[in-house]
Automatic annotation (TrEMBL):
This is mRNA cap guanine-N(7) methyltransferase. It catalyses: a 5'-end (5'-triphosphoguanosine)-ribonucleoside in mRNA + S-adenosyl-L-methionine = a 5'-end (N(7)-methyl 5'-triphosphoguanosine)-ribonucleoside in mRNA + S-adenosyl-L-homocysteine. Residues 1-77, 93-117 are annotated as: Disordered. Its main location: nucleus. Residues 213-521 form the MRNA cap 0 methyltransferase domain. It comes from Debaryomyces fabryi. Residues 19-40 have a biased composition (Basic and acidic residues). The record marks K253, K259, R284, H352, E445, Y513 as: mRNA cap binding.
């Protein structure tokens, strides 16, 4: 493609080399939802209860299995037990009961029970997370977490309905998102984030057509970037008898489900701290799930690409303070044995919340490295610390006194005076409030100094494979993806000059972000 500019490209008229799958690429999220009908012939995935409390039954707890001499298929498990996971009929049956998989789960052949010595410190050591995994599930963090939050912010979560100017969802007006969080200053980041995303999920149902959003193009651009990153870096399981599994940490409303179909995963696991988002993600998945999930190699080739041909499960939880088994096992007993290690961990637009404290980052990295198989990938998007540094060094503030940079679409307001050379020490807890019109309303985030993050990743056996800012990703990859991406998505990135990509205020707003990929070391 010759006429690509920074953040833009022209759409070729046709591409004869497009294969069937590419041509039939799924409808946009909106189309997909419109076309879909609930699948009444399949056993339902375990439903998240209406109040989102977790239905924990002792009879399904992993503790009950302790005499089974069950084996371990992931680094989360007890290394002394060697029986293959597929022999654990009891656990497998229990897992099937929840409808998340309809066939027995085969054990991975990778020697995950013999972790590379180099990584033993985080696989079994200092964080002692295996001990945590064996804790009785009746006292899970998820459970405690839900009880705790029952006392918090009920008003904040409900408030948005009353604040909406548009009462009639069929109105032509578009109501731009605004959150209403009381006493924000006195609240911790989790409370603010949860309330914010709960409100956003609720309001989005009443805002009007998303094509009218002031950031419609920007959203399409960001979605295109995620298609590209996942498309290039999700590595299918090398064992044809194993499902390809993606763990979507901080999954939000399930906005990346389409992308998971795009990369043909077999199983999706989504976790988010916002219960409203998880409910929405679950309902989106249920509406669009294929009638029959392909089980054989041949049927996988014939996927109905307008629907989700993968199994999925969703859970509410704090990915930065709890271990993955603590979050998942109470809802899906046996899931760790059955589906872990996974092939990909996706972490989109969320890690900046973890950089509040070093402990949170360590918990997150423990979760990631323990979840991934060797050769599996961590794929993420975060604000660029280089971009932030440039703004500081060049004093490119729109409000010097309030330490604020940005434009009419987005803004960053530092909590304290940033260091004049733009290098934050210590690297954690360097807060700023972020706003993005119609999406994020003055929510605290934390600078992610990328080199610090990269160094920590190496300690956890994750090596950097790719890092680029969004504009460069788009420019370099979009020629390959024009024919693959949905037409509406592409058209939704059309610029005023007829080319495709970001321009003006949007271009600076998307330029704030980078995409990265790490690979888990080992054999
Ligand atoms: C900007 S949204 C991104 C959602 C989704 N990944 C996407 O790309 O569309 C950030 C998400 O991170 C979630 N989040 C923030 N802190 C979290 C935590 N500690 N544990 C789990 N989810 C968290 C929020 O609830 C929100 O859904």
């Amino acid at each position: 493609m010759s006429n690509i500019e920074a953040g833009s490209a022209s759409l070729p008229d046709s591409n004869p080399s497009v294969n069937k799958d590419e041509k039939e690429l799924k409808s946009t999220e909106e189309n997909l939802e419109q076309e879909s009908k609930p699948d009444i012939n399949k056993p339902p995935i375990k439903k998240i209860k209406a109040d989102d409390s977790i239905d924990i039954s002792d009879s399904f707890s992993r503790r009950e299995n302790k005499d089974n001499n069950n084996s371990i298929s992931s680094v989360y498990n007890d290394e002394n037990k060697k029986t293959p996971a597929w022999m654990k009929s009891k656990t497998t049956d229990k897992y099937d009961k929840y409808g998340s998989r309809s066939t027995p789960i085969a054990a991975p052949t990778a020697p995950v029970n013999n972790p590379d010595e180099r990584y033993s410190k985080y696989m079994t050591g200092s964080l002692n997370s295996n001990d945590r995994v064996r804790r009785p599930p009746t006292e899970t963090t998820v459970n405690r977490y839900d009880k705790k939050r029952a006392h918090e912010e009920v008003d904040d979560d409900v408030a948005p309905y009353s604040n909406l100017a548009v009462a009639n969802p069929s109105s032509n007006l578009y109501q731009t998102f605004q959150s209403h969080i009381n006493n924000k200053e006195s609240k911790d980041i989790n409370s603010i984030v949860r309330s914010h995303y709960n409100q956003r999920t609720q309001q989005s149902k009443f805002q009007g057509s998303r094509t009218k959003s002031p950031i419609y193009k920007l959203r399409n651009f960001n979605n295109a970037i995620k298609y590209i990153l996942l498309g290039n870096w999700v590595k299918h399981n090398p064992d044809p008898n194993r499902p390809t599994v993606i763990l979507d940490l901080c999954c939000g409303k399930g906005g990346d489900l389409n992308k998971c179909e795009f990369v043909s995963v077999d199983q999706y696991i989504g976790i988010d701290i916002s219960d409203a988002s998880i409910k929405e993600a679950f309902s989106r998945y249920s509406r669009n799930k294929a009638r029959f999930i392909p089980q054989t190699a041949q049927s996988k080739k014939e996927r109905d690409t307008r629907r989700y041909n993968f199994e999925a499960c969703f859970a509410t939880g704090d990915c930065f303070s709890s271990s993955i088994p603590e979050i998942l096992e109470p809802n899906f007993p046996g899931i760790i044995d059955g589906l872990f290690p996974v092939d990909c961990v996706s972490l989109q637009f969320a890690m900046h919340y973890a950089f509040e404290t070093e402990e949170k980052v360590h918990q997150l990295l423990t979760n990631i490295t323990k979840s991934l198989r060797a050769g599996g990938t961590l794929i993420g998007t975060i604000p660029s610390s280089d971009f932030i540094k440039d703004k500081i060094v060049n004093r490119a503030f729109i409000d010097e006194e309030n330490r604020k940079f940005g434009n009419d679409l987005y803004s960053v307001t530092f909590h304290k005076d940033p260091p004049s050379e733009g290098v934050f020490r210590p690297p954690f807890g360097n807060g700023y409030n972020y706003s993005l019109k119609d999406a994020i309303d003055d929510v605290p985030e934390y600078v992610v100094p990328f080199e610090v993050f990269r160094g920590l990743c190496e300690e956890y056996g994750l090596v950097l494979k790719y890092k680029k800012n969004f504009i460069d990703i788009f420019n370099q990859e979009i020629p390959k993806y024009f024919s693959k991406l949905n037409k509406n998505l592409i058209e939704g990135m059309k610029r005023s000059d007829g080319k495709y990509g970001a321009e003006g205020l949007e271009k600076e707003a998307v330029g704030f972000y980078i995409g990265f990929v790490f690979e888990k070391l080992g054999n």
